[in-house]
Amino acid sequence: MRTMLEKAGNPEVEVVLWDGSVITTATAPVSVRAHIRNRSTLYKLLFDPSLYFGDGYSLGTIEVEGGLVEFNEAIDQGTHKVDTQGFYRDRFRTSLSWLKRNTIDAARHNIHHHYDIGNDFYQLWLDEQLAYTCAYFPDPDDTLEAAQIAKMDHVCRKVGLKPGDSVVEAGCGWGALAIHMAKHYGVNVRAFNISREQLAYARERARREGLEKQVEFVEDDWRNITGSYDSFVSVGMLEHVGLKNYEELGRVIARCQRPHGRGLIHSIGCNSPRVLDSWTTKRIFPGAHVPSLSEFMRIFEPQKFSVLDVENIRLHYARTLEHWLERYEQNIDQVRDMFDETFIRTWRLYLSASVAAFRAGSLQLFQVVFTNGANNEIPWTRAGLYQDRESGSVEG
Amino acid sequence: MRTMLEKAGNPEVEVVLWDGSVITTATAPVSVRAHIRNRSTLYKLLFDPSLYFGDGYSLGTIEVEGGLVEFNEAIDQGTHKVDTQGFYRDRFRTSLSWLKRNTIDAARHNIHHHYDIGNDFYQLWLDEQLAYTCAYFPDPDDTLEAAQIAKMDHVCRKVGLKPGDSVVEAGCGWGALAIHMAKHYGVNVRAFNISREQLAYARERARREGLEKQVEFVEDDWRNITGSYDSFVSVGMLEHVGLKNYEELGRVIARCQRPHGRGLIHSIGCNSPRVLDSWTTKRIFPGAHVPSLSEFMRIFEPQKFSVLDVENIRLHYARTLEHWLERYEQNIDQVRDMFDETFIRTWRLYLSASVAAFRAGSLQLFQVVFTNGANNEIPWTRAGLYQDRESGSVEG
């Protein structure tokens, strides 16, 4: 156990065993500790710390004292201290992950696993429009609702939507962005998703708001996008695409985005190539991969797209997740009416560890704006993104 | 010749031979044509079009009608049309370029070749502060002088300079940015350069402005940077570093930038890995390489730096170069007093082809802001870059 902590960069935590003995490599008094309830949990931990810490926590054979976010943050900060030789090891492991193909069938299965567990559940802790991606807080004290709207406006401004434009959205969740673009920017949207529950919700909302003619929700994979559009927009789908399919994604974009259009991909990322921890990829997001920027570029470089703007809003995702976690805990009784205790603890850990990862810098959030390499119809500066922010959308 | 034009994507140009015969693959009437004066120039062109177009133009065995910028732009636009299979060929050729090492000695030779040909010459066509890098025009109609100051402020704001900070600058040219930072932001700067003529000018200017205590100009290679600083800044040096040395550059930055500091690298780049044309690397910038963003990331990813912001201001470089070319032609008589006609034509072609390359999208200009992966002392949004722009610098 001590060796494991050393390998993990000596995080400022303590591990307390079932017999009361304390294991730590911390050099100062710590405020967070994990309690391991039995020997078999310890053995599993030594075998695959990420997977069995998660599973142990879910099952209650591991308890955490001093805050679940804080414990995970201490672990992540330890990992950062481990030397950069990890770069080559991680790059090698990432290259192995190419063996996993997110085929259309596998993608459908993976997406169903996470997103089709009930809209009611997500309504308990997301914002009122069910935007399940990083918000953008012009002011850190903005409400989650305001920050999700600001994020949508930020995206619309970055791709420069004009009334009458056509937009294709890959991975549209519950449809918040598609509907926002149609309603406030006067554009026509075709939005693709393979989560049936999300689509049913999105279609119903579009119908209710009288936007069925402007927004078409399509139940299909991004690989099957056809047609030609002014903008390709994708917010929070790339994480599920799989590294091996990035070049294909680039070809799809090149095929469907018009020469003068600007596109945007918004995705969780990381600072150097790595594979996600085993717990996240087994229990939370099967098939997920979060790209470093060099990996991200595999979408654009083969097509000679011009990357115009990359913004990293990592701390905004920490803030977003803090809101989600707070709402989750506030509504925990209602979650308990829907799911068992293992589920409750799994999702508590997932949200808490995610807050920690974005705070500690283990994860990033990239928004990348790109266009055809020969397109000169691009904004002269980015100043327009920061004008009249208070008034919300610029058109519509 | 016709085959060569086809391979080059059928650019909208004509080639007129010494006997008056016209070769073209253009589909519409063209406004630009090249005249080839003799047979040996044609043969050389077929062997290495880039190198011998340049050499032929310099020597006057090739003349261009309809505008040198416009001719080059038509050529570049043709190249874009060539299919994207070129990606793999170019990536292979780029990997071969790793064989070239820009050692300290080679770097010194290469830099001397371009930058030590006389400050008087550069004074004829650069701005009054001799900033020989892409300017930033908040308004496209700004003067070159104003745009170079705006560029320096843009850089200083991006790295968040505060009075009393220390900055190391790698590749400082004639010292404009180092002096600007010291004078307007109250920081202490150590600026490295291996061009002796530039350094002599920079030191004299710092002395004249009473800034010797705040700005130290060091005649040494970036590999020999020592000490610890709040910010690492490099504007227009990366082009000379050589792809093989990017990881070493990252290690130097990791060694010398403090954990809470932000750094910035400003460099010409391209949309996908490629080698520069043979004329540019033989006659203008020996040892030069312009990175794609995935290549750029080789500086940051092994060190697990967090990339916060990438801005592509390609069209600003086209504008900058238009100013330089215009001043160059305005002062051509004075250039003629210093150099022979071959030199004059070489530099005319270099400036014109560069305008064309940035206009056509063959070259990009990236500003990349980065920091230590665990640093949370980062700006909440980028809005601060766009406030009170008119008033110039924010401090000092």
TrEMBL record, chains A, B:
* Molecular-function annotations in GO: methyltransferase activity
SUPFAM superfamilies this protein is in?
A: S-adenosyl-L-methionine-dependent methyltransferases
DUF7884 domain sequence ranges: 2-71
One Pfam family per UniProt: CMAS
Report the InterPro entries cross-referenced here.
CFA/CMAS, CMAS, DUF7884, SAM-dependent_MTases_sf
- Coiled-coil residues: 194-221
Task: Print the keywords alphabetically.
Answer: Coiled coil, Lipid metabolism, Methyltransferase, S-adenosyl-L-methionine, Transferase
- NADP in keyword set: no
A single BP term in Gene Ontology: methylation
Entry's family note: Belongs to the CFA/CMAS family.
Q: What is this protein called?
A: Class I SAM-dependent methyltransferase
Top-level taxonomy: Bacteria, Pseudomonadati, Planctomycetota, Planctomycetia, Planctomycetales
